[in-house]
Structures are given as C-alpha cells and as structure tokens.
C-alpha cells in the first residue's frame, strides 16, 4: 500500500500523479479523499479532547499563521489561517483552520455565546500585536500579555536612535 505523504502539503491530485510516476500505482483522487475523510472521522474525538484540554488552561499562547488553501473550481489558491492554541503549562497544542483571521475565529474557539455575548474561557492570552486580540480581551474582560519577542523587535527597530532606552531594555530581555 502506498504511503500518503502530507508533509509536502500536496493536494490529492498531485499525490495521485506521484504514485503513478514513482510506484506505478493508479489511485484515484476520490480514493485518497475517502481515505483522508475516513481517517479524520476516526481522529475527530481525539481532536475534541485536545481542544477541551487546551481550554482548561489559564494561559494560552495563540497565533494565526497564513497558509494557502486550494479553492476548488476557481483554479487558484486563497490565503487562509491556521490558528494555533498552546497551553503554556501542559504544552498541548490545538490547530484550528479558518479561511480568515477575524475575531469570529478566536471567539468561536473560546466558546463565545452570541445571545449573551459571553465567553466560556477565562484566562490570559500571550500573542503578537494583532489587533483582534486586544479587541476580544477588551470586550470580554480577558487578559492579554504581549509576546516578548515582538516587543523586543520594536526596540531593535529603534536601534541607535535612542541607545539610552533601547540598550537597557534589550539587555533585560
């Protein structure tokens, strides 16, 4: 049986061509799609358990990373976001794909109830300077701790313009 390789982030139609060329195996794209969806179905309870475990944390590191996504029928890719939530204390990570990076993505993960405009999760975010985090924390009484690497970068950008300020801060970091 061929090994389906996802580390190259190849769509199934390209993988079928590779199997044919490399191994002489003629697999249809629909077969690979079926295998993938069946596997995801079996793994769904594990994903739900990991999400629940991450939401038990008092502190989360959160980031949203751009990633191209195939847009079937349009012959092109679109940029989506892979949201990553990491429990700082336990180290468990949860990955959540969304086609965008708006506040709705974050709110959905945190258990936002639109009727009461409340969030089930309580704690502190550790994030970069993306404005959605400040908006969500401000509107829902959460705490936001900025990422020290991003803060450091701002002081590095100042460089020699204010060495009396930047040098002590950079040495402290």
Question: Keyphrases for this structure?
Answer:
173 residues; alpha/beta; Nucleotidyltransferase, domain 5; five-stranded mixed sheet; 25% strand; Transposase-related; Transposase IS66 central domain-containing protein; Transposase_IS66_central
The main sheet orders its strands as 3-2-1-6-7
Number of domains as seen in the coordinates: 2
What is the average per-residue confidence, as pLDDT, rounded to a whole number? 88
Beta-strand fraction estimate: 15-25%
Outline the biggest β-sheet.
5 strands, mixed
Count up the helices: 6
Shape: extended
Helical content (DSSP H or I, runs of 4+): 40-55%
Order of helices and strands: HHEEEHEEEHEHH
Quantity of strands, as a count: 7
- Spans of at least 5 consecutive residues whose pLDDT stays below 50 are none
CATH architecture of the largest domain: 2-Layer Sandwich
Q: Tell me the span between the first and last alpha carbons.
A: 52 Å
Remind me, CATH topology of the largest domain? Nucleotidyltransferase, domain 5
